[in-house]
Amino acid sequence: MSNKMVAMILAGGKGTRLKALTAKVAKPAVSYGGKYRIIDFPLSNCANSGIRDVGVLTQYESSELNQYVGNGEKWGLNGVRSSAVVLSPKQTEEGSSWYRGTADAIYENLDWLERMDPDYVLILSGDHIYSCTYNEMLKKHIDSKADCTISVFPVPWEEASRFGILVTDKKDNIVQFQEKPKKPISNLASMGIYIFNYKILRDYLIADAKTDSDHDFGKNIIPNMMKDHRKMVAYTYHGYWKDVGTVSSLHQANMDLLKNGANGLDIYSIFGPNKILSEDMHSTPQFIGPKAEVKDSLINQGAQIFGKVNHCVVSDDVVVEEGAVCINDVLMPGAVIRKGAKVENAIIGPNTLIEENAEVNLEHDDIELVVNRKAARL
Amino acid sequence: MKDVIALLNCHECARLGVLTEERPLASTSFLGRYAFMDVALSNFTNSGIDNVGVLVKDHQRSILKHMGNMSSWVNNTKTDKITLLTNEKGLINPPYNTDLANLKENDYLLYDSSASTLVFQSPHIIAPIDFNPIVKEHRERGEGITIVYKRIKDGDRDFVGQCRLTIDQDGYVTDASKNDGSEKEICVSLATWIIDRKALLEIVKESQRHDLSLGIADFIVYFVKSKRLKVHAYEYKGYARCFNSLEKYMEYSFELFKPEVANTLFKKDWPIFTLTHNSKPALYGPNAKISNSFIANGCIVDGDIKNSILCRGVTVEKGAKLNRCIVFRGSKIGENVVLSDVVVDKHAKIAQKHKIEGDPDVPIYVDQGASV
Question: Same domain, yes or no, for A106 and A230?
């Protein structure tokens, strides 16, 4: 088959800045938008692009994530001639070690890639929120006869120094790469989405594995290819894209889904024409009680609302009891807000219990994170 | 539960008036999230029955669509099976389109399995029934036929037209008749039967000698009345409602707004499985005002919803007011529309400022795809 592209999703990161949310689960498995987990986005994007084979590279707190990915059934990747495979660090003839970096994670799984025998490899991050297909990017990669195509996203100039920045010529050829530059000369940030010609990537990975480097795409593989004057092309992505690194950015990304979200966006414009596929929860229907007040919110099936919910994202099996008030919150699956509790500007973690009449973050603008998993034992 | 074949029996199913003119009750929307057949199919799954047949009477397409690849209701996707059973001869000859004729037409289901017991449930009876204790008792007593029944207090209002039973001290049915509403406290059949394979053969044998329009229920009554075979009765005490008209459909659906009622249907250890559609969560706008309602995913609501049920993908615009309404999937309710006691079928559009007011006893029905 010609033009076969296999996707590799890097999903091993810890997401330290999400604090207690990622204490027991990897960042790609963190809940988002009432019914999704972050990794639903790259996986759905792959499914919507017609990519049939996807490897998911996991490492940190991998059991929940591995179970979630399963055989890819949630994204339809369990069909004939399709596969979704969880690739975790393994023992080999040479010994065993953790993935030493993003490039090493792919290197350690070259055996799987060899079996898949792709023409192109798409490298994705498991913790970005965006809805798209990769077909146009692949077309550009093929048409421009590139060795590597990097997806870029124009960021505000003042934020450019937080990203890997690419400088391009008029034909979108990448002429310079700056990793977190102090004085950026471009505002095109790398999204960590790469398409490589497989055989070229393989050579660079094998060479890199023998060196004492960071084994990282941004720090090693891309600069090495630039040095060798490989054909490197930028593909500019337009649309919603979020790398939710912190508690407040995760909160903001949830709020973006609401009807009057940032820049007039909402879940419909952010997801666009593609379906974001996710787990099939066998929850009961969503019930809004007789004394409830619900407005300006996104609420998933299985939620039971008896109190006041304003400007919130509410996941399945959340209970907000009578007299409880939730404003500007993200309530993750199974969270229970008891009678009379007041919760503002907060993320309430999965299965977290907020006791009767408790007050959470009423007077502060910063987003507070509460995680206790006590509701799981109710 | 091995050694059991479960059958979802669409032949003995009631109808919901205009709602079921174009679709069978089995695949009609229930509480915005489910189809009626989900409850019985989930009972089979939760009871651990791995061999399920669906006795389809008509409107096969609608049932097939909801069943999808059937993996939503099976415990093991390889070893468990759900088979759709249809009787094509019956389609052109409706009076003879019975459950018995369908089973005879598809008797390979019986030959392919050595199961000794068959379990039947009809989609119009919503009841979360665990078949394990019932089948256990049926087998321990060595019964041929067991009917699952419930004692009800409002026989003049509920289960009217369904089978009413008289039961003796030993747990056998001594009389069976149509519930004509003459008494309040009665025992009613839940159209749920446990039938031994041998007893089924008895029914088949008997049926050769009689009118071919008779179904299994008719022969169970015949056995009771003629005393040819003892019919055992098993009392079920949980939630059970018989949905047999548009009015009852609304009444019993709205009754589930009460948590004390809903908690008897939705139990933690007894999930109701359904086909899901990857719809987005419900999105409520800044003008939304919602109370006492079931709202399905995929809805976009900026209006005022009270005592209502919205199915998947319904849009309610700003200023619209809904009270005691059921709105089927994909319908659009425009700005400032006022609806009360209305059932809006799927993909209907009600343009702005319209006012449609029914009566709790006489709800108004808006047809599928209608533009008002």
Answer: yes
